[in-house]
Amino acid sequence: MSLRTKATRQLHLSATRNLHAGWLVVFAALLLSLFGVEAIDTTRPALAIRQMQLGAIGIVAAFAVAFIPHRRLRQSSWWLYTGGLLLLLFLLIPFVPDFIVHPRNGARRWINVGVTDFQPSELLKIAFVLALASHLRYKEQYRSFGGLVVALCVALPPMFFILLEPDLGTAMLFIPALIAMLITAGAKYKHLLSIALLALVAAGSMYPILRPHQIARIDALIAQIQGDDRYEQTSGYQGARAMTLIGAGQLTGVGKVEAEQLLRANHLPEEHNDMVFAVIGLRWGMFGALGTWVLYMVLGLGGIGASLGCKDPFPRLVAVGLTTMLLSQMIINTAMVIGLAPITGLTLPFISAGGSSLVVAWLMAGILFGIAMRRDPVMTREGFSFTDEGTM
């Protein structure tokens, strides 16, 4: 067999590794999911059983998507992105029957598909990363200002439509992922600065479409930082209750029974969902909160490790984008619970009760596992270029 034939075969073989960084992602995701089930069981035992069932579905879906070739993901990226945008538009159509799109707390985020409710913005997080990675895999895209403007335009439509639902928290996740992927691709610093300024202008222009309750929560956060407690019984109630419960947990927590009693007495809204980190701080104390952050750091190391093993730009960018999405969501959620960010209704990945959010988080973990599992073939295209004549 000729050397050329051997190289060609090696190029097309999807060689895999048994030991790789993807196991860190799966290990951390599994522990976080179990941690979430136990936290939810503290306040809503019936939902804890459902969370275990959804977690099992998510794990199966994760390992299924892990074996999808990168080429297939790339080919389907723009179709998924376009389909996700159309579903977001569908949510905003006012005359859609209530049994299909039923608003919750004034938000139109879910589509009733019979057995469960589906949240398109969750799936669009993956579609956005795949589409952006497909765009940035060529040097002329990430080393030219025009190519980066196109990248920004990929991020703005989903942000705009998600803000209209309204869902400020999810909309905030696209900018960190965009910036991380641009940096990873090797964009010029001067172009990155220009894109960052454009992103700030675009974000500022979206402020007028925020709902009154979203603006009120921002005002409540500013007042809380200034020591003003006038919003604690209105727009700042949820944040004030969360911080009170976290403080009650101290270093080691109060245990399950006392945590149940304190949660009932304090009437914390969405304690099983957006505010589940407050339950962790109450039941397991500071040690529980730190343990949660450590598990996310392990997941992040696994995701970055998966990206470092790639010479091909597409999977490398996907790994960075998905890892950034998950970690940004964790940072925003925990920051809002401890009073460092406005309440946005954003879930804590793998831990918060939910259907779409939990399954999509596991799908992200599955894609990261698949990227880490595959060994780049010898004849792969050259990786990113971080230096270029005339840059800066």
Question: Your description of this structure?
Answer:
With 392 residues, the protein is mostly helical. It has helices at residues 3-12, 22-43, 45-65, 70-92, 120-136, 139-142, 145-164, 168-171, 174-185, 189-205, 212-225, 237-249, 256-266, 276-308, 313-337, 356-373; strands spanning 111-112, 117-118. Strands 1-2 form a two-stranded antiparallel ribbon. A hairpin with a 4-residue loop joins β1 (111-112) and β2 (117-118). α3 runs parallel beside α16 (356-373), α5 crosses α15 and α7 (145-164) packs parallel to α10 (189-205). The protein is globular, with a radius of gyration of 22 Å. The model is unreliable at 7-14 and 377-392 (pLDDT under 50).
| Contiguous runs where pLDDT drops below 50 for at least 5 residues | 7-14, 377-392
Could you give the distance between the termini? 48 Å
Largest sheet: 2 strands, antiparallel
Structurally, the number of domains stands at: 1
Molecular shape: globular
Strand order of the largest sheet: 1-2
Helix content: 55-70%
What fraction of the residues are assigned to beta strands by DSSP? under 5%
Roughly what is the average pLDDT, rounded to an integer?
Answer: 83
What is the radius of gyration computed over CA atoms, rounded to a whole number of angstroms?
Answer: 22 Å
Tell how many strands the DSSP assignment holds: 2
Report the order of strands and helices: HHHHEEHHHHHHHHHHHH
| Class based on secondary structure composition and strand pairing | mainly alpha
Helices, by number, come to 16
